[in-house]
Design a protein that fits this description.
Elements: H1 4-7, E1 11-15, H2 24-34, E2 40-44, E3 50-51, E4 54-55, H3 60-63, E5 69-72, H4 79-88, E6 93-96, H5 106-121, E7 125-127, E8 133-136, E9 141-144, E10 152-159, H6 162-174, E11 179-184, H7 193-202, E12 208-213, H8 219-232, E13 235-239, H9 253-258, H10 262-271, E14 274-276, H11 279-291, E15 299-304, H12 307-319, E16 323-324, H13 329-338, E17 349-350, H14 357-369, E18 375-380, H15 388-398, E19 405-409, H16 416-424, H17 433-450, H18 464-477, E20 481-482, H19 484-493, E21 501-504, H20 507-517, E22 521-526, E23 539-543, H21 546-563, E24 571-576, E25 582-591, E26 595-602, H22 605-608, E27 613-617, H23 622-630, H24 635-639, H25 649-665, E28 669-679, E29 687-688, E30 691-695
Parallel strand pairs: 1-2, 1-5, 5-6, 6-7, 10-11, 10-12, 12-13, 13-14, 15-16, 15-17, 15-18, 18-19
Antiparallel strand pairs: 3-4, 8-9, 8-11, 20-30, 21-24, 22-23, 22-24, 25-26, 25-28, 26-27, 28-29, 28-30
């Protein structure tokens, strides 16, 4: 069902309109009248005959005609009656301002569901309840109790918090930002962020979408809608709070490291959403993305009239993972001819403290013409001779629109005239270089996402039937913790290399297996009750003889029985020793909303102490898998530095893609760890050294059994 009637109604009824200024029912009616809504406005109140010079009706039935949109502002006990009256009047969209529903507890939730079900049966869309309303500047529609109508512009805002809607309106006015639409979604009984992303993504008036969310109703639908919208225009979201849905005592590294908020970050990354971590950042990013073109790369040029702020900006650029641009030789030569001898023509370009507007213009024009520069940051600090307003006007006139330019006019009273001129000219201005750089980073990352290659997910040839049999058997028996033996069995069916080995139930059997597969061997205890085997003496490596295997078997069994006396021991797994290589961890943790989240990290201290890991939603492409590796701080160890040889990065990416396929094919797998995954030089095949998985119980079977 389209949302057009919500944003472009021909008639609006306010049920619960009031004659008392300051009451919500009065303010919404007053906003509709004052802000020039051109359609019919129908106040509904049984106690008065006219309101704001409009005929007032005791009910919609008394009005007797059809209504496109109704705004309900009556007490909670009367809301259902108002909705039924609206449906009889052929209303196609309803805004329920009234609170007292899901946010109050189970009884309120039941009332909200009854209301939503009734509207669904009659194909009526609901915004709210417990919301501020909406604004559409294009249609002169202010169906909200916000204080004022914003000026028209290209930014559309939706928010789960009505209070933040009013704060956003005030902040937008302060930054001279025009808005297309503002929507308070409240409890999301019907219309949610998914509906609004789909609508605003297609809306011609909306150039940038800004959102504040506390939760996301349906993860997969959100990712699809956000990705489709972000393909057309920037989507910037501030997500507060975290979901506790599906939290449990994670058995894997991946599950422990995922955390409750990681899935949101992975979903935003996948769908191209620019995530803002703070309220200030939300509008910092929106300002830059609404006012400036996207950069073609990440090379930033800094122009400043003071050395300290220039250095601060350069530090911020490098910390953000971008490059301090190296000027072309011809650009530097031209600048030396135009700037004083004491000026610096490196990067930052220091035009000196006594710089007049002409020096800034010279530097900007040179930077715009230099192919080695992708974006420009202009810094101004107030000196005795600084003319901030004139400089701002000159900077704005010098821009040719070929590259994004952001400014940081630092200070207070002395630079305020310049900041006002920048705002009037549509040039983003930030109080500090760090905030300006953060906005540039958001632009660079969004531009890179838009330029990404088409998403082509590889499908490998696998033995799916074998995995189906293993999982089905374990679910039927309730043995849902899969250790190394069954874990490797499943991974082998999906193309992972596992070393030859078998489970031994006695020391003699262990020797027979070792003799067959060849020495040296690794020996590992197999028990659903022993997760961290090496910590308990359950692992022996490089066992090189029959006597060694025999003795190791007896010793390991003795240690485990002593340290975990109630453990069920299946036996000891004897396998060929894997060749040496770099140990990494790849895994998956299934989020209840967004599905399988893939994880990558280096082994040892990098994952245990530094938590240097990255996540991505499945299914994953080869390019996205490589980007996961690049996102770690320890990526240099994969490449090989200072005489160390690198490892086969494409092989790790292939492993991540195979896990992606496995866990997409089998939603029964809740967690998976390959730890370690031993990777060698280019051309070598990685080896699964150890693995474990957790399966979901069959419906109605309860918790995971040991």
């Amino acid at each position: 069902m389209s949302l057009d009637v919500l944003f472009h109604p021909q008639s609006v009824a306010v049920i619960g309109a009031s004659r008392t200024p300051g009451k919500v029912g009065h303010d919404i009616l007053a906003n509709l009248v004052r802000d020039g809504f051109p359609g019919l406005i129908v106040p509904v109140n049984p106690t008065v005959d006219t309101l704001l010079d409009l005929p007032c009706y005791p009910s919609l039935a008394a009005w007797g005609k059809e209504i496109d949109l109704t705004v309900i502002v009556v007490p909670q006990a009367l809301v259902m009656e108002a909705i039924e009256d609206s449906i009889k009047a052929k209303t196609r969209a309803i805004i329920v301002i009234t609170a007292g529903f899901r946010e109050t507890g189970p009884e309120g939730q039941a009332r909200e569901k009854k209301m939503a079900d009734l509207c669904l049966r009659h194909s009526v869309r609901i915004l709210g309840p417990n919301c501020l309303g909406l604004i559409n500047t294009e249609a002169n529609l202010n169906a909200s109790f916000a204080g004022s109508m914003p000026k028209p512009g290209g930014i559309s805002i939706f928010s789960q918090s009505g209070a933040l809607c009013t704060a956003m309106l005030d902040l937008a006015a302060g930054r001279h930002l025009g808005l297309a639409k503002l929507i308070s979604i409240g409890n999301k009984a019907d219309i949610s962020e998914v509906d609004l992303l789909s609508y605003l993504g297609q809306d011609e008036q909306t150039k940038v979408i800004v959102g504040y969310l506390e939760d996301i109703a349906t993860g997969s639908n959100f990712v699809k809608a956000a990705e489709e919208a972000a393909t057309r225009k920037p989507v910037i979201i501030l997500k507060s709070g975290t979901t506790t849905a599906g939290l449990k005592a994670a058995a894997s590294h991946t599950g422990v490291l995922a955390g409750v908020d990681t899935a949101y970050g992975a979903a935003f990354k996948r769908s191209g959403v620019v995530r803002a971590d703070t309220f200030d950042a939300l509008f910092d990013y929106a300002t830059a993305l609404a006012m400036q073109p996207l950069p073609k790369g990440n090379r930033i040029l800094i122009i400043t009239n003071a050395g300290g702020p220039g250095t601060m900006a350069a530090d911020a650029v490098e910390k953000a993972g971008m490059e301090v641009a190296e000027l072309d030789r011809n650009t530097a030569t031209a600048l030396r001819a135009q700037l004083p001898m004491a000026a610096s023509v490196g990067n930052p370009i220091d035009v000196l403290g006594d710089a007049d507007p002409a020096r800034y213009v010279s530097a900007i024009e040179a930077a715009q013409a230099d192919p080695a520069v992708d974006a420009i940051l202009v810094i101004l600090t107030p000196q005795a001779m600084t003319r901030s307003a004139e400089t701002a006007i000159a900077i704005a006139r010098a821009l040719d629109g070929s590259k994004p330019v952001v400014a940081s006019f630092m200070g207070g009273k002395d630079v305020m005239p310049g900041r006002k001129e920048l705002a009037a000219a549509g040039l983003p201005d930030y109080e500090s270089p760090e905030r300006a750089v953060s906005a540039l980073k958001a632009m660079v990352e969004y531009a890179a996402w838009k330029a990404r290659p088409p998403r082509l997910v590889t499908r490998f040839r696998v033995n799916r039937r074998r995995v189906e049999r293993i999982i089905s058997r374990r679910q039927r028996t309730g043995m849902l913790q899969l250790g190394e033996v069954k874990g490797k069995d499943i991974l082998g069916a999906y193309g992972f290399r596992v070393m030859d080995g078998a489970l031994a139930g006695s020391a003699d059997e262990a020797v027979e297996i070792a003799e067959r597969i060849g020495y040296p061997v690794a020996m590992k205890i197999v028990s659903p009750n022993v997760i961290h085997k090496s910590d308990l003496g359950g692992v022996m490596l490089n066992v090189a003889s029959a006597d060694g295997v025999h003795d190791s078997f007896d010793l390991m069994m003795l240690k485990i029985r002593k340290r975990v006396p109630n453990a069920f021991i299946e036996g000891i797994y004897v396998e060929q020793m894997a060749t040496k290589g770099l140990e990494v961890i790849i895994g998956m943790s299934r989020d209840p909303q967004f599905g399988p989240m893939l994880m990558f990290g280096l082994g040892g201290i990098f994952v245990e102490v530094m938590k240097d890991v990255t996540f991505h939603l499945a299914p994953i492409t080869e390019s996205e898998a490589v980007q996961m590796l690049l996102a770690t701080r320890s990526y240099a160890m994969l490449e090989g530095r200072r005489g160390q040889r690198g490892v086969d990065i494409t092989a790790i990416a292939s492993g991540l893609q195979r896990i992606s396929q496995l866990t997409t094919d089998f939603p029964q797998i809740l967690e998976l760890d390959i730890n370690p995954f031993i990777v060698g030089e280019f051309g070598s095949e990685p080896v699964v050294a150890d693995a474990r998985m957790t399966l979901a119980p069959l419906p109605g079977e309860g918790d995971v059994k040991e």
